[in-house]
Amino acid sequence: MNILYIDHYAGSSEMGMEFRPYYLSREWVKMGHSVTVIAGDYSHLRKKNPEVKSDFQREIIDGIEYIWLITGEYEGNGVKRAITMERFVRKLLIHAKNIAKKWKPDVVIASSTYPLDTYPAQKIAKYAKAKYIHEVHDMWPATLYEVGGMSRKHPFVVAMQIAENSAYKHCDKCVALLPYSKDYMIQHGLAPEKFINIQNGVVEEEWDSPIPIPEEHKDFFSRHKDQFIVGYFGGHALSNALGKSLDVAKEVLKIDKNIIFVFVGDGVEKKKLIDRAKTENITNAFFLPPVPKKAVPSLLKHFDCSYMTGLPSPLYRFGLCLNKMYDSMMAGIPIICAFDVPRTLVSIYNCGRECNPSDTKEVIESILEIANMDEQERAEIGKNGLQAVKEHFTYKQLAKEFIDCI
After folding, report:
1. Residue 214 gets which letter from DSSP?
2. What percent of the chain is helix, strand and coil (3-state, nearest 5)?
3. Measured in whole angstroms, how far is the alpha carbon of residue 405 from the centre of its chain?
4. Coil/strand/helix, residue 2
5. H-state helical runs in 215-359
6. How far apart are CA 8 and CA 395, in angstroms?
7. Hey, what long-range contacts does 46-49 have (CB within 8 A, 24 or more apart)?
8. CA torsion sign, 337 to 339 to 343 to 344?
9. What is the DSSP-derived secondary structure letter of residue 235?
10. pLDDT, tens digit, for every residue of 283-335?
11. For residue 200, which of 1, 13, 404, 392 has the smallest C-alpha distance?
């Protein structure tokens, strides 16, 4: 089968985020399918962007054919980013017939943050007489007005809404990463039988031979090996609610000095958090630099439990699909999931504790409960997550589910 995967921000294992198109495509290639990914030359999500000198420049990465379009650079979410979206979609629309003729796709997947790519995807699929799959990562335009504060009547939001409705109406299947988004999509024109939830997951090979953590991290964990480590890894932005996490650490310090909180990562709030911990003498909170993605398995070996949290958001009603959740399950450690969300994999598979991020007391009680368990009980909880992720959330399994839905 010839698969055409359209994702403006698609990356690879070396380029960085976003990883999903690369991991799925690599599995499809192993299964014997031909996969072409069309992406833009610049993405704010990537650590490294490709050097692209002309539109439709070709590159082969692990058997996947990448086709690059020049869209231009941008910063933040302003007008420049909107212009890059327009360039990407316009170039695909102009060349839709040639793309269909050259690559002869059996299925076209539109998979970007924003839904405008539905138009060229529909057009290419029509020319090629192919199936059209719409894949939803983020809930645009809901994100724009529920979190971004934009008016529903803003022309940009209206354009996104029209595109989203068109995608739901015309797709053959809609693959959603968020587990509880079905009702919303039906309200916007999706036939119920078209919905399928295929979440993110893990690549087992990366866990078989991970790279080691940096020496700074090794030294730290060596010094604190006898303490119970509540570990957080990821962004240090306002949305990550790490200020609330310091509130939790401060209270836990009064109860059990053997429990420490380790925050691994970077972000705009990091310096402020470090300064606050020093000022308020929160001596059980420690901050370490981020580690490469391939070192995450090595990092998680040093955590006694994984701590995930975020500020309340109306978008969380659609559920969670965090890479760190699947990584933590794969690490076989209990998870503290402090998000204001419907039921998550943590409670579904009994691999940790869910709690309200706004209820400091509840979060503290969950941490203390896990910290006071004997090692065998904690190991059993961790084992539940490991078993679940191996059975349902490896990219090998997810890629098969995707092909089956096609």
Report:
1. P
2. 45, 20, 35
3. 21
4. strand
5. 215-223, 242-255, 270-279, 296-300, 323-330, 345-348
6. 21
7. 46/9, 46/11, 46/15, 46/16, 46/17, 47/15, 47/16, 47/17, 48/14, 48/15, 48/16, 49/15
8. negative
9. -
10. 999 999 999 989 999 999 999 999 999 999 999 999 999 999 999 999 999 99
11. 392
Tell the residue number behind the tokens 């998979």, with chain if given. 111
Backbone phi, psi, residue 251, to 5°? -75, -40
> Around Cβ 100, how many Cβ atoms within 10 Å?
20
Q: Token pair of 272, please?
A: 């402020």
Q: Convert 177-191 into a string of H (helix), E (strand) and C (coil).
A: CCCCCHHHHHHCCCC
CA distance 297 to 69: 34
Q: How far is CA 253 from the centre of its chain?
A: 32
Cα distance between residue 249 and residue 268, in whole Å? 20
Report how far residue 127's alpha carbon sits from residue 209's, in angstroms, rounded to the nearest whole number.
44
Instruction: Round to whole Å and give the CA distance between 375 and 348.
Output: 22
pTM over 0.85: yes
